[in-house]
Write a structure and sequence with these properties.
Oligomer: single chain
Distance between the termini: 17 Å
Order of helices and strands: HHHHHH
Radius of gyration: 17 Å
Number of strands: 0
């Protein structure tokens, strides 16, 4: 559960701030890159709808992952979503963050 809260907080931040605000926030982690370049990259991610709104691993995404693994020859047998995935902790983090 502890891992979901900060990830959800980060998703909330990137989905509610401008590329320039995000760039200023993360720039210390990319000291070799100027803030305008970072803002351009962040803007591109936002325009591509790269970031999810929450940390909940949906069944559609699980099926897509299994399709990819199957096509790569890395998955011998499909597993039912309900048998392998639990969304309890992610849903709690989303609820606590007030995003749903």
């Amino acid at each position: 559960m502890l891992l979901f809260r900060p990830i959800q907080k980060g998703l909330n931040y990137v989905n509610s701030h401008t590329p320039e605000e995000i760039a200023k926030t993360i720039q210390p982690q990319f000291q070799e890159t100027d803030v305008d370049t970072i803002a351009t990259i962040v803007g591109r991610y936002q325009s591509q709808d790269t970031w999810k709104g929450d940390t909940i691993f949906q069944e559609e995404s699980f099926d897509l992952l299994q399709n990819i693994l199957e096509e790569a020859g890395e998955l011998e047998e499909r597993v039912p979503y309900e048998k392998l995935v639990t969304t309890e902790f992610a849903k709690t983090a989303v609820s606590e963050a007030g995003t749903r």
